[in-house]
Design brief:
It holds the Pfam family PGA_cap. The protein has eleven helices and 18 strands. With about 400 residues, the chain is of the alpha/beta class. The longest helix is centred in the N-terminal third of the chain and has 18 residues. The protein is globular, with a radius of gyration of 22 Å.
C-alpha cells in the first residue's frame, strides 16, 4: 500500500488532521508506521543498509524476484573438449547450485549450439557447441540467454536458427537474435511471483563484415536472420514498448573494448539515456574482463561481468568475473550485490579468501571511479544507491 495514493486528492489541512487522528489511535499507529517505512524503503530502490544497522527487522514485501546475471558462456573449443572428457555438466559443476537457487538466471551465450551451417568466411574465430551441450544450461538453471553477440552467426543462419530452436525446446528463452529484425528485437517477458521482468538484447558488432567477397554482417534484416544491432533509436523504441507491459526492464548490451577495465565515455552516455528512457538494469558483455558498476537514478549499469564459462586461461583478468545478484520488486531494484568468481580449467567457482578479496577490491575501485559505492561484506559486495561523487560526463 502506498500512502501517497490516497492522500493526493485530499487538501493538506484535511490530510494532516487524518494523519494525526490515526496516529492517536494506538491500535493503528504501529501498522501505519510499518506502511510508511515500507513506502519510503521501496521508493529508495537501490539504498542498502550498512552492515549491522538493524534494517533487517523491517518486514519485506512478498512480491520479489531474485535475478542472477552472469557473463560470457562459451561451450565450444577447449570447453567443448572438456565436456566430452569429463561430462556435459563439468563447466558448471562448482557453481550450478548457486544458479539453480535463483528465480531467474540470465547469461550471454557466446557459442551457437548446433550441428548445422558453415563457417563465416575469414572471420578467424568460430565457435559452435554440440547440440547436447544445452543440457548443461538446463541443469544449471538458465532461464534467458542473450544471443546478441559477435559469435551468433559463426556458422551462418542455419546454426543460429537451430540454436534458438534447441534453447526453446529445452525451456530456455533467447533474446537478441531471430529469423528477421522484428524477431531479433522481440523482448522476452518472465513473470515470477507477480513481478513482470522483460529482457532485451543488442550488439555493437552487428554491422561488422569479415570478407567483402562474402559481405555478410550479423545484423538481422526484414528478410534475413541475425542479431539486434546496438542502435540507440531502435533500443529506445523497444524500451518504450516493453515498459508498457512489464515492471522491470533489463537491457543486455554486447559492447565495449576487449580486455579493457573501463567503459568508454560513449558507453556511459548511452547507458544513462537508456535508464532515462525506462530501463532498470543494463548488463554488459564482450570485454572478457570485469568492469565497474554504476548507479544512475533508479537504475544499475553493470558495464561488463567478465567471463563466466570460457577457456581464456592465459591471463588473470580473463579468469575473473562477477555474478550480479538482484532482488526485484514491481517498483524496481530492491537489493543488488556482486559475488566474485574465478575460472579454473574453464570451470567457474565462487572465489574466496585472498582470491575473492582481490576481485572484489578491484570492482570496488573501478566502481568508485564511476561514482558508485560498493560496501564490502563477507565474500561479496553490496551496491549502495548513494553515489560517492557526482559522476556527470
Amino acid at each position: 500500500m502506498r500512502i501517497t495514493g490516497w492522500l493526493e486528492p485530499v487538501k493538506k489541512e484535511l490530510a494532516l488532521s487524518i494523519l494525526v487522528a490515526l496516529l492517536a489511535v494506538s491500535s493503528l499507529s504501529f501498522t501505519l508506521y510499518q506502511v510508511l517505512v515500507h513506502t519510503f524503503r521501496e521508493q529508495s530502490l537501490l539504498a542498502v543498509a550498512e552492515p549491522g544497522s538493524g534494517d533487517a527487522a523491517v518486514s519485506t514485501v512478498p512480491e520479489t524476484v531474485q535475478l542472477l546475471a552472469v557473463g560470457d558462456v562459451m561451450l565450444a573449443r577447449k570447453v567443448g573438449r572438456l565436456m566430452e572428457e569429463k561430462g556435459l555438466y563439468y563447466p558448471f559443476a562448482k557453481i550450478a547450485a548457486r544458479l539453480q537457487s535463483a528465480d531467474l538466471t540470465f547469461g550471454n551465450l557466446e557459442s551457437p549450439i548446433s550441428d548445422r551451417g558453415f563457417p563465416l568466411p575469414r572471420k578467424g574465430i568460430w565457435f559452435r557447441a554440440r547440440p547436447e551441450t544445452v543440457r548443461a544450461l538446463v541443469y544449471s538453471g538458465f532461464d534467458v540467454m542473450s544471443l546478441a553477440n559477435n559469435h551468433a552467426l559463426d556458422y551462418e543462419s542455419p546454426a543460429l536458427l537451430q540454436t534458438i530452436e534447441i534453447l526453446a525446446r529445452n525451456g530456455i528463452a533467447s533474446v537478441g537474435a531471430g529469423e528477421n529484425l522484428m524477431q531479433a528485437r522481440k523482448s522476452v517477458v518472465k513473470t515470477v511471483n507477480g513481478v513482470r521482468v522483460g529482457f532485451l538484447a543488442y550488439s555493437d558488432m552487428a554491422d561488422l563484415i569479415w570478407d567483402w567477397n562474402y559481405p555478410r554482417s550479423m545484423r538481422a534484416t526484414e528478410e534475413r536472420p541475425g542479431i539486434a544491432p546496438l542502435d540507440e533509436k531502435i533500443i529506445l523504441e523497444d524500451i518504450a514498448e516493453l515498459r508498457k507491459k512489464v515492471d522491470i526492464v533489463v537491457v543486455s548490451l554486447h559492447w565495449g573494448e576487449e580486455y579493457s577495465d573501463y567503459p568508454t565515455a560513449g558507453q556511459r552516455r548511452l547507458a544513462r539515456r537508456l535508464i532515462d528512457a525506462g530501463a532498470h538494469l543494463i548488463i554488459g558483455h564482450h570485454p572478457h574482463t570485469l568492469q565497474g558498476l554504476e548507479v544512475y537514478r533508479h537504475g544499475l549499469i553493470a558495464y561488463s561481468l567478465g567471463n563466466f564459462v570460457f577457456d581464456q586461461n592465459w591471463s588473470l583478468e580473463t579468469r575473473q568475473g562477477l555474478i550480479l545478484d538482484l532482488v526485484l520488486t514491481p517498483l524496481g531494484i530492491r537489493e543488488a550485490r556482486i559475488m566474485p568468481i574465478f575460472i579454473h580449467q574453464s570451470q567457474p567457482r565462487i572465489a574466496s579468501g585472498e582470491q575473492g578479496q582481490a576481485i572484489l577490491e578491484k570492482t570496488v575501485r573501478l566502481s568508485r571511479q564511476l561514482g558508485t559505492r560498493l560496501i564490502l561484506q563477507e565474500n561479496e559486495a553490496v551496491i549502495s544507491g548513494e553515489p560517492t561523487v557526482l559522476a556527470e560526463e
